[in-house]
Amino acid sequence: MRELHWHTTSDEWDYILAGQGRLTVYVAPSSSQTFNFQAGDTGYVPVVDAHYLENTGDTDLVYLEVLQAPFYNDISVAQWLGLTPRQVVKDHLGFSDDTLDRLPKIKPYILPGNTNLTTTNFTSETE
């Protein structure tokens, strides 16, 4: 899964080379769209729209991501929250200390997936 993030300098175009997946795009403040795709399909995400990509197949998802910008830039929601003062995140989102401790200061680009597509627990910990 490519975690929830957004780009500050460019729209994003995706071309799916192999596999199948799902792209969800959040348009602030209150709408989202989800698209399922397979090899040969293309996707588009407007600049600053938060989005994430997940593999929904049983083989690798291979895609080409193209941004038209002089340098690559994205902001990860998890890292953004991890670098925000703890008390601000706690006061506004009600996160527990355990959750705050697990927010990354360094952005992970790929998060491990779960083959159970009905789960909402996207941590890398095994329970």
What does this structure look like?
InterPro entries: Cupin_1 (IPR006045), GPI/OXD (IPR051610), RmlC-like_jellyroll (IPR014710), RmlC_Cupin_sf (IPR011051). Residues 1-101 form the Cupin type-1 domain. This is Cupin type-1 domain-containing protein. The protein is an alpha+beta fold. The protein has a single domain (2-102), classed as Jelly Rolls (Sandwich). The protein has helices spanning 77-83, 86-93, 97-102, and strands at residues 2-6, 12-18, 20-27, 31-38, 42-45, 50-55, 62-67, 75-76. The strands form two sheets. It has a five-stranded antiparallel β-sheet with strand order 4-3-6-1-8. Strand 3 (20-27) and strand 4 form a beta hairpin. The radius of gyration is 16 Å and the shape is globular.
CATH top level label: Mainly Beta
Portion of residues within helices: 10-25%
Q: How many E strands?
A: 8
> What strand line-up does the widest sheet have?
4-3-6-1-8
- What's the alpha carbon Rg, rounded to whole Å? 16 Å
Distance between the termini: 19 Å
> What is the strand content?
35-45%
Q: Stretches where pLDDT falls below 50 for ≥5 residues?
A: none
Q: Main sheet, how many strands, which sense, barrel?
A: 5 strands, antiparallel
Order of helices and strands: EEEEEEEEHHH
Question: Could you say how many structural domains there are in total?
Answer: 1
Shape: globular
Average pLDDT number: 85
**CATH fold call:** Jelly Rolls
Corresponding CATH architecture: Sandwich
Query: Which structural class fits the helix and strand makeup?
Result: alpha+beta
CATH homologous superfamily? Answer: Jelly Rolls
